[in-house]
Structure formats: structure tokens, C-alpha cells
Amino acid sequence: MDTPTKTNLKRVAAYVNTTRIHWLVEELQKRNINEILATEFFRPNSQISKLEFFCEENQINDLRQLIHSIGTCGKSADHLFIVKEVDPDKSGKSIFPFV
Predict the structure, then answer these.
(1) Cβ(54)–Cβ(35) under 8 Å?
(2) Cα–Cα distances in angstroms (integers) from residue 54 to residues 60, 68, 83, in the given order
(3) Angle CA(77)–CA(46)–CA(44) in degrees, nearest 5?
(4) Is 86 helix (H, G, I), strand (E, B) or coil?
(5) Based on C-alpha coordinates, what's the Rg of the chain?
(6) How, if at all, do strands 9-17 and 80-85 pair?
(7) Looking at domain 9-85, does it have CATH number 3.30.70.120?
(8) Per-residue pLDDT of the chain (99 residues; tens, 9 = 90+)
């Protein structure tokens, strides 16, 4: 799969179960998503991770299904998938803020 082009690039933020984050990263990399920003949040009785990455528009449905099937414990409220448009003139070339 080719690197996403600037014209159809989307930014995905997915909130998932922290215990499943490493499986998700491996599966995303198999789909040629190689820049992934992961942030973990902890509080009593709650652990959630936020994954952020760029992808092509035509990957959205597959990635939504991947997040739902691997990134959750099966409860409807334990994940969230957000897609944002990317302005090609204002967006950087990397998901990482320091690159």
C-alpha cells in the first residue's frame, strides 16, 4: 500500500482499551500505518489509550472495524473512533508534534 497522499489524508484518533494497544499497533503496521502516536491515561478503575495516525480515506472502514474488533473488550462504551479532515496546506508531514 502506498503512503497516503495529501489530498485524501485523514487524521484518526481512536480511544481504546490500554491492554490491547500493542496488538493494535502491530495490526496497524501491517496495514502500512507506520507513524502512530500512543498516549495512555490511567485513573482508578479505568485505563484508556489514545492512538493517533494518518491514513487514506479508503482505509477508514477497515480501520474502524479493526479498532472495534481488537481494541475493545466487547463493551460498547470502551472505545471511540474519530476521523478528522486534514488540511494539506497546514498539516505537517508527521503525526509527531516534534518532527
Answers:
(1) yes
(2) 10, 18, 10
(3) 150
(4) coil
(5) 13
(6) antiparallel
(7) yes
(8) 455 555 688 999 999 988 888 999 999 999 999 999 999 888 787 788 999 999 999 999 999 999 988 887 766 566 788 999 887 676 666 777 665
Contacts of 26-34 with C-beta under 8 Å, sequence gap 24+, read: 27/66, 27/70, 28/53, 28/63, 28/66, 31/1, 31/59, 31/62, 31/63, 31/66, 32/1, 32/2, 32/3, 33/59, 33/63
Q: Report the candidate in 44, 25, 27 with the shortest Cα–Cα distance to residue 36.
A: 25
**Which three cell numbers, joined as nine digits, stand for 17?**
482499551
Nearest to 28 by CA among 4, 7, 47: 4
Whole-Å CA distances, 25 to 8, 21, 56, 88: 22, 6, 17, 25
The structure's pTM equals: 0.80
| Residue recorded with cell 494518518 | 54
